[in-house]
Amino acid sequence: MKLFVTGAGGQLGHELVEAIRAAGHEPIATTHAQLDITDEEAVRIAIGSAKPDVVIHAAAWTAVDACESDVEKAMLVNGVASKYVADAAHSVGARVVYISTDYVFDGSKPTAYNENDVPNPQSAYGASKLAGERAMGEQDAIVRISWVCGFHGANMVKTILKLGATMPELKFVDDQIGNPTFADDAAKAIVHIATSGLGGVWHVTNQGVVSWYEFAREVLLTAGMDAAKVKPISTSDLQPPRPAKRPANSILHNGRMISEGMALLPDFREPLARLVRQLLAETGE
Known about the structure:
Layout: E1 2-6, H1 11-22, E2 26-30, H2 40-50, E3 54-57, H3 64-69, H4 71-91, E4 95-101, H5 124-134, E5 141-145, E6 148-149, H6 156-166, E7 170-173, E8 177-178, E9 181-182, H7 183-195, E10 200-203, E11 206-207, E12 210-211, H8 212-222, E13 230-233, H9 255-259, E14 265-267, H10 269-283
Parallel strand pairs: 1-2, 1-3, 3-4, 4-5, 5-10, 6-9, 7-13, 11-14
Antiparallel strand pairs: 8-12
Helix pairs in contact: 1-7, 2-4, 4-5
């Protein structure tokens, strides 16, 4: 199959291209520099000339706090442009797999979020990603992921390793919980969904629930650093406060994967160990 990937320069996009190749399919990778998804005509021409079987729409503006101060841009990139992608895909008979986020939920549920729970975003980023979800058609798939980490691009694992090596103390919130999800694991599952003709909403995360405080400790432990450096702090005590509200509960239940008999992604500690080895090898540590 021929799979068109938007946002191929991002941490998930890189892994999607690799996973498509590994599965024996043909990736058509477009980065932000190659395709401005907010240019409707450019999107129509790019997808129209490629004539893919599926478009995996991973391009997004994911700077959560920056979205809060430019709601219009967030809605254009994540909402309106997603409709451009969906319309262009449908015009050549292609399905879309849209990559979404835990931020579409308000985080107030006491248990894990299911695929059919009603979204209620509390940030501009979450609202813009929900607008993207709503731009999809009946045959398309929406894949929500959370707390994404990977080898490419900026993410929390790289930040924690850097801070752990240079700072005497690290403060991370202990009142936001979720499923750390690793880009290479998620990419394989997304490509499976894309190539199996499966539509609807999916929650795709690694197993294991932690707070950011617990996750930071796991990263340092995995790297052989002193986890006692990490101190818990509540979200309300963060200085300066973050502009965008984060969901206190970002746990996504993988109900659809279970019902379809798909293998669940491994506990996050497994890919974390792999990623830390990769990153430390790259820096020669």
